[in-house]
Design a protein that fits this description.
The chain has 8 helices and 17 strands. By secondary structure, the protein is α/β, with parallel strands linked by helices. The chain has 2 domains: 133 residues, Rossmann fold, CATH 3.40.50; 94 residues, Beta Barrel (OB fold (Dihydrolipoamide Acetyltransferase, E2P)). The strands form 5 sheets. The protein has a 5-stranded parallel β-sheet, with helices on both faces. The radius of gyration is 21 Å and the shape is elongated. The chain starts with a strand and ends with a helix.
Amino acid sequence: MNAVIVDDEAGIRNTIRNLLNDNFPDITVLASAGSVGEGYEAIIRHKPDLLFLDVELPDGNGFDLLRRFPSVSFRIIFITGHQEYALDAIKVSALDYILKPVDNDELRLAVEKARQVISQAEQQIKLQALNENLQSPKKVLKRIILHTSDHLQIVSVSDIIRAEADSNYTRFWLSGGQRIMVSRTIKEFAGLLAASGIIRVHQSHIVNLNYVDKFVKTGGGYLQLKDNTTVPVSPNLKKQVLQALTDHLYE
């Protein structure tokens, strides 16, 4: 595989190059660049199989670079920092990434995943979701990629009514009556979607506040949703759930 690295920090570019040289002798770094403009020229010139791409660049972001190409035929591993909105956007879009400062094990894992066979159409679906999330003016996730047993589906976060844990799987209920089962734990989704108004109300349940009709105190406490379903509320989460419902009313 041939690779190009686009990151505005020379130290990051050198670290990735050195780690690739040490761990992946079959990957050749043909060029590195520090901006959208330089990155575009490097990709046009070298036609890489693999692109390491920083989310934030001095003259734009990674998608300003990707939008210059009619289609993206190369694999992409995004580079981003800790505690950034961009990191959540990348995660819910099911794309590969490494964090700054670059860790050898994380890089190895990301590269191995990038080697796996993935169709260009599948990558385009994931990039579409990420692009919409990064353009969200209020930094609230708009789209999420859900992996079913046989396809990828882009889902609007606003269409998620609730989700329930099923062992190591998670079952989603969407507006319109659709249900989707995915092979990821509810814990992962609870962390990613909390800022979008989908909160954990029970060890096995997350709920979109927009679909809550009322909180019922009887029976230990539960939520009545607008689709006439009910969801239990854990006693240890009751205070947080009631506060979230109150805050939501005044948003």
